[in-house]
């Protein structure tokens, strides 16, 4: 298989991330309130940031322990989610997501208790990254 270009990889990350986000959002909202919520398409560009931000980190962390890689990915994703949420609030007046209902949240933009989920997502992205560069 020919390696996928950088812009092509960004599109793949956007689609994959938004797909996972849409499923998680629908299932989580069903569990919380009995009605599925939709994920915003505004989230897709945030997931596309995996190409310029995640890939170099993944390349530097190769060979490190799963725990170290997962913690780095989880913390990094929370940081990007927070920063993106702040940008959305400044430009659109609100972020596409709102965690203010959750006991543990930071400005309604991130949930630190989701760090393990983001760590697992980052570890899953390693395989996708490697497959896209083969």
What's the helix and strand layout?
Elements: H1 6-33, H2 43-48, H3 50-61, H4 66-92, H5 115-133
Q: Short summary of the structure?
A:
The protein has 134 residues and is mostly helical. The protein is built from five helices and no strands.
Q: How many domains is the backbone divided into?
A: 1
Overall shape: globular
Strand content: under 5%
Instruction: Tell me the helix content.
Output: 55-70%
Low-confidence stretches: none
The first-to-last residue Cα distance is 6 Å
Kindly report the average pLDDT value: 94
Using only CA atoms, what is the Rg? 15 Å
Main sheet characteristics: none
Count, helices? 5
Give the strand tally.
Answer: 0
Helix and strand run: HHHHH
Structural class call reads mainly alpha
Task: Give descriptors for this structure.
5 helices, 134 residues, globular
Question: How does this model look, in words?
Answer:
The chain has one domain (6-133). The protein contains 5 helices and no strands. The protein is mostly helical and 134 residues long.
């Amino acid at each position: 298989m020919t390696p996928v270009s950088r812009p092509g990889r960004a599109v793949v990350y956007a689609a994959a991330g938004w797909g996972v986000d849409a499923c998680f959002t629908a299932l989580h909202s069903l569990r919380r309130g009995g009605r599925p919520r939709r994920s915003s398409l505004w989230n897709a560009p945030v997931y596309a940031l995996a190409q310029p931000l995640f890939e170099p980190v993944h390349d530097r962390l190769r060979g490190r322990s799963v725990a170290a890689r997962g913690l780095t990915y989880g913390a990094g994703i929370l940081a990007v989610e927070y920063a993106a949420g702040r940008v959305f609030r400044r430009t659109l007046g609100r972020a596409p997501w709102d965690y203010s209902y959750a006991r543990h949240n930071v400005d309604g933009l991130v949930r630190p208790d989701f760090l393990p989920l983001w760590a697992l997502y980052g570890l899953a992205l390693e395989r996708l990254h490697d497959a896209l560069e083969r």
